[in-house]
């Protein structure tokens, strides 16, 4: 008897896939067979409809929150003395003040206020609702305004630096007003207990600091969201996780601009309030370089190599760990293609350890990459959205693979006379060239990294009429060397068309750039990008090398662009470069074991770029090429149709689609165009031309229209021969003449009639083309005579 499959789903959204053990529990997810299922995911993609929007959350009622906070005081505490951290248990008869069993320092174990107390004749205490890292949080009513507020008091009023920390938190809240940071409303001076109260004396208590009155933002901390999801009471979408991260980073960026470090970011220090987040618990905020009072950090979130020190890198590390905690139970399995790999890469870079490479430069850079990853996830889910310009790459002025949309030149059509068969023989079958870019073309026409803003020569690149991309530049003698000049010279060395790329000169410039010091987080990906370009150019320029050596070049290019993608996971330029490299790998050795995997990965990468920016015609052409490799005409056309109207790639996509509709993709019957393809394709293209002209889009010149018509009709003639046996020029007309003479009742077949119409049109078009070029007119007239039908009058 086969084991019963588990009917539960995973937290990430996909089916469990496990089997039920004889015990009644699943061997994979551990749930009972009859356990309550996880919440339904609903129909369609999950997540917010708009970028950076969160679903509104309403705080729980005050009664529910007070009931949950009633037992907080009964939970054990950790000693806050530096280098101690011992657990202080709370017994049933424990006094309000208790000493640490390890270091002996006193700690307040109970809240200061009881229900019904009133502060400053304005704030009516309802009860404790939370215990933060440095204070008790009470829910109170503002009797003057009639709304709820949160009052924070010192958790450890006996601590030597407790009041100083409270005062520091107050000043931080006042100075850091931001929509994503909890707002301070009032500050009440701390009232010292009389001598003898709580067994205290004036010598033991310093009356400083006070109570902080803040806006009430509810109790939906991100930690509570994680707990609810893990308990199966609600779901968390991966888009929400990215949005949480972007909003948290926006708040931290506001602090960093004031030279403040948050220090202790974690899920319990962020609240989902209404449709956005609120960062709470500012007690660990410190000025950059400040060491006293010692900050409170949470093990597992703090950067391990910093040993408790607060830095900007540590803040980003804590955000990365927070996002990792949130992403673990989030719904993500419905994201196709690349899935959530870009979001995972953002988290991985933020939490890198020593030796794994630099973390993000600042909160803005991490937020940029997180926003790009979110856009990619939404695009893969079919939500679309307008593309966002890159802050790291300048787009290439040309589309790679544009030959797929190029009509043949006059000289190319004239040269076809060289392989023209004798009249009466079958027409030559020409398979559509997909226009796959060469490795050298890829290296020359990839997007260009924007210059590093702190490089000494960067301002000269941005001025009007600045450096030409084909002119090699020199370092200024006596000035600080410029890495951007070296990178510019690499591109110049590779762009020596039509001559082969000067790979040796490019490698020398790369070595010079590597020797110039600079911040690793901004220089590494730029160097790797150009290293990948050089490897591609070397692969394309060394056709005579042994295959193993050429494969090493492709592997080096792939590794370099993968490192760039890991450093900038939210950018699509590295994904585009990787797509071209994997396409080259699959095409170089199509029968190799890894060719199919390389082709599939290239398709996923092109697809991610195209969905995120449908106007990127280069990605659309890449997908069309991969579809044509499998002789899938329908899929290739569907991709090109998605290039939006009004964009600069639309005309190229239209030309490519016209050629694909009429082209012969192979000699098999399924690869040939239908009998009426030429007529219908040219009619549709004419309609597109009229519409494009009305919409003021770019259209083909009349001469290009003529050459396109010739190419389409030649494909049609070859297809008629292969499918219906219609052969060389005039043969159908000759036999039809004889049949009419001896069997007057016989009518020509539709294919024969169609072939004669195509030949007549081709003759006219070749003669018209001959009149436009005196140098090639003789060859074009010969071509017209070769294709015309034989006549008897």
Automatic annotation (TrEMBL):
Enzyme nomenclature, EC number: 2.7.11.1
Domain of life: Bacteria
A GO molecular function held by the record: ATP binding
Classification via Pfam families: Pkinase, PknG_TPR
Regions that span the bilayer: none
Region (Disordered): 36-63, 381-435
Catalytic activity: L-seryl-[protein] + ATP = O-phospho-L-seryl-[protein] + ADP + H(+); L-threonyl-[protein] + ATP = O-phospho-L-threonyl-[protein] + ADP + H(+)
Protein name, UniProt field: non-specific serine/threonine protein kinase
Naturally occurring in which organism (per UniProt): Streptomyces guryensis
